[in-house]
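Open question from group meeting: does this chain pack into something compact, or does most of it stay loose? Before anyone orders reagents, we agreed to write out a predicted structure and look at it together. Recording both the input and the output here so the notebook holds the full record.
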Amino acid sequence: MSKELANLLADLDEDGVLSAVKERLGNGDDPLKLVEECRAGMAVVGERYERGEYFLSDLVMSAEVFKSAIEIIEPRLKGGMAASSKGTVVMGTAHGDIHDIGKNIVTAMLRCSGFLVHDLGVDVPPQAFVDKVKETGAKVVGVSVLLTTSFNSLKQTVEALRAAGETKVLIGGGPVSGIVVSHVGADGWGKDAMEAVNLCKKYAR
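Structure tokens returned:
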């Protein structure tokens, strides 16, 4: 496997990554191979972060570069990306809340770990989570919340997902605790980003 693309992503060279992806797709390279090389680059980013060489801002930037590359590659795939990943996760911030820093960090770390993540953004209504799960077949949904005023919508989201199927629902955010997990009926909560990733590894397959 050529490591050129992986190295470009690991070095956070967005222009280089996107140019390489477009060029290689134009040359007829296997799109799934490009996805795997991008994942390899994300793995290096994760290693550099763990060693203290990269910071959270670098982690989030790498996820954005990865996302941009996948948006170019995905139309050329035929279902192979989801099949080759560690699992599919739907992420979003609860309805009524627009905070996303924690969500973005977890999303970045999930992508570094090889997950296919569909990030719905902030202020996400319960039905939007349900619709995306039906569309993607995700086994795990991660819902972030920072405002206690959004606990009711968080509970409604969990209830809607329960009614729709067997998806595991994980929650996280500053005010979240075991009591909140019990109150809203979630399957667990990540005290920090790494714990959230480990829970996804447990439930995504």
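Observations to bring back to the group:
Residues 65 and 71 are 10 Å apart (CA to CA).
The chain has a mean pLDDT of 88.
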